[in-house]
Specification:
The protein has 272 residues and is of the alpha/beta class. It has one domain: P-loop containing nucleotide triphosphate hydrolases (Rossmann fold, 3-Layer(aba) Sandwich). The chain contains eight helices and eleven strands. It is globular, with a radius of gyration of 23 Å.
């Protein structure tokens, strides 16, 4: 009996050392986010079959939710996504919007939303979902400082993700980072999103829509934990049509070209 326990303990210690190694001790399947700077820091992209944490900065839960939706869209765009959240989160933040999910260019038919009565139930549900290899991504959304999500619970989630090949994304709202086995940790804020070009209608008798269209989702994403590379902070725009992150365009709207048939005014002044 004692020998069996010692063998199990040694095996668990080996798993933990492998998870907490700072070098590239095991091969990681990377999924490129599309943003050159972030992908370079992540050495090719976000690691699949691991756990990543996304914290909202201040009252930035909507930005963090949109950012984590983009990560899920990159990691497993056509596989089921299980989103586990507390009842309390839905009371505070409202339900997930499937129309908003579609506007991000993602398929709302892939989303399975699970509401848990308390933190313990949410942790068990997320662990069970991570153990199912038919799932693409599991999002665990927790509100506030959660003592149940300690280092031991984090290790269980990471081991489940590695065993099944499913990626776990932890969305933390109104919380501070604590020790964990997460592969990466992000702090996300909303960034300025310039308005898109004015909306026009194809029908010639219909007037153009007033104002401008909504701008693309833009995030101020700070990578504060990275097991296999440097840290960094980037402004990342989510391309809803192409479904990837990119650097925001310097000129979000078309810029008129200078007339080719007119001489430069400054040159005219100097000549006169």
């Amino acid at each position: 009996m004692m020998s069996a326990r010692m063998s199990t303990l040694a095996s668990l210690r080996g798993d933990i050392e492998r998870l907490e190694a700072h070098g590239d001790g095991y091969a990681l399947n990377k999924v490129a986010l599309g943003h050159a700077g972030a992908d370079a820091a992540l050495r090719g992209g976000l690691a699949a079959a691991t756990v990543h944490e996304v914290f909202s900065a201040g009252h930035q839960s909507a930005a963090a939710t949109g950012f984590i939706a983009g990560l899920a869209g990159r990691l497993a765009p056509r596989r089921p996504l299980v989103w586990v959240r507390q009842d309390f989160s839905e009371i505070e933040l409202g339900a997930l919007s499937m129309s908003g999910w579609a506007e991000l260019g993602l398929d709302p038919r892939c989303v399975v939303s699970v509401r848990a009565a308390d933190v313990d139930t949410a942790l068990r549900t997320a662990a069970d979902a991570l153990a199912c290899d038919a799932v693409g991504v599991v999002v665990l959304e927790l509100w506030g400082e959660v003592r149940q999500l300690d280092l031991t619970a984090s290790r269980k989630l990471t081991l489940a993700a590695q065993s099944s090949g499913v990626t776990g994304l932890l969305l933390r709202v109104a919380a501070q980072p604590s020790p964990s086995t997460a592969e990466s940790r992000w702090i996300v804020r909303a960034a300025h999103s310039p308005p898109a070009a004015p909306l026009t209608l194809a029908a010639p008798l219909m007037p153009a829509a007033p104002g401008s269209a909504w701008g693309a989702p833009v995030f101020d994403a700070e990578l504060v934990r990275n097991r296999h590379g440097p840290l960094g902070r980037w402004i990342m725009e989510w391309k809803c049509d192409e479904c990837f992150f990119a650097e925001p365009a310097a000129y979000p709207q078309p810029v008129a070209a200078a007339p080719a048939h007119r001489p430069n005014q400054a040159f005219q002044r100097r000549a006169g």
